[in-house]
Amino acid sequence: MKNFYDILQYLKKYEIYIHVGKRLWDIEVAALEVDNLYKAKVLSDQDYQTMKVILAKEHRQEVERTGDNSHYDVNAAQSASH
User: Fold this and answer.
1) Cα–Cα distance between 10 and 16 in angstroms, integer?
2) From first to last of its 82 residues, what are the pLDDT tens digits of the chain?
């Protein structure tokens, strides 16, 4: 798994389809879904960590690109879930 697209494709295996309308929101919803899969013991620790790093990077890049930082903090959710 290397990017946000790969994560979206992985989520589709569990019939999780994400399209909220803004890329930033899609990343945030994907982060929540990844958390839920991990809590349900569907994801290994390694896959979970890899996905969270990718999502945090994509989120940071999207905030930098759009200047929109008024939403869910992927990094805070990651540290809060452990």
Assistant:
1) 9
2) 999 999 999 999 999 999 998 999 999 999 999 999 999 999 999 999 999 999 999 999 999 998 877 665 655 555 555 5
